[in-house]
Amino acid sequence: MNSKQKPTALMLKYLYAHLFVVDPTRELMLEKLSYQDVYELIQQIKRFTKEKQQSLSSSTSFQEHVIWRIDTSSSEELYQIGNKLSLQYFGRPCKVPIEWDKSVKDAAGRFIFERTHQKPIKIVQSLWQYTQFGAQHVIATLKHELAHYHLCLQKKPFADGAPEFVAECRRIGAPLFAVKMLEGYQTYCSVCSAKAEVLKKPRKKDKSPCCKADLVFKEYIIRLPDGRIVQVEV
Q1: Distances (CA, A) of 222 to 102, 161, 177, 204
Q2: Strands 109-114 and 119-126: what pairing?
Q3: Model-wide pTM > 0.85
Q4: Helices 135-153 & 76-90, crossing angle to 10 degrees?
Q5: H/E segment holding residue 108
Q6: Cα(first)–Cα(last) distance of the chain, in Å?
Q7: β-sheet with 229-231: strand ranges across
Q8: Could you tell me the CA-to-CA distances from 166 to 60, 169, 170 in Å, in that order?
Q9: CA–CA dist 211, 215 (Å, integer)
Q10: Which Pfam families does this chain map to (predicted)?
């Protein structure tokens, strides 16, 4: 196998979803990994998973890092996990619903609140992002949204980027942003070669924003939830 062959998008998404196993700081240089590198890391993750599940099978305490699947037939288990995270990191229960949302694809999750009085309404988690990135991504997202929720309850600034919010995310190990995941071909303007949209497949109506010209499809990329862009195989 060519050592420079790139991993597939599916392999990279699996690795990212379980990245804490091989890199707790989540600083692994994913964009530099070959197909073989990712394959070996995935095998390492699978061995770790099997061993960890066996060692914790009798444990009754909440262990967020051993959650690999979440029931999607209802939002009951999702809420239970979110409430346990709330108690663990904030010392208070979550008193708003936490629900799966099939329609949300442009974010990992959302904290929804009544804007006039800034009253919390609910937390939603993208079901689509769960199918893409797995349970650990959901847990990270829930921690992010719970930081919004608890700061809102305390009448403190809770918007993305607010110093109070950034400090809370760092304290509990939550991602600072729940960004949209992109996957597809990076396109370029056929006239001036300027970078254009990321598209899954060619469409006749798509033109470059700069010259209104046809698009050239080149490398296939994936933008992970932490914002990193990695070139992969289809």
Answers
A1: 21, 24, 17, 23
A2: antiparallel
A3: no
A4: 60
A5: none
A6: 17
A7: 195-199, 182-189, 215-223, 229-231
A8: 32, 5, 6
A9: 10
A10: SprT-like (PF10263)
> 53 with 66: CB under 8 angstroms?
yes
Spatial separation of the C-alpha atoms in residues 93 and 229, rounded to whole Å: 36
135, pLDDT greater than 90: no
pLDDT band at 176, cuts 50/70/90?
confident
Please provide residue 126's backbone torsions phi and psi, each rounded to the nearest 5 degrees: -65, 115
Please report, for the chain, how many H helices and E strands are present, in that order. Answer: 7, 7
Domain boundaries, the chain: 64-172, 182-232
Q: How much is the pLDDT for 174? A: 84
The number of residues making up the chain comes to 234
59 has a pLDDT exceeding 70: no
CATH class of segment(s) 64-172: alpha beta
pLDDT interval class at 54 (50, 70, 90): low
pLDDT band at 227 (very low <50, low <70, confident <90, very high): confident
Quickly tell me which residue has 């609910």 as its tokens: 122
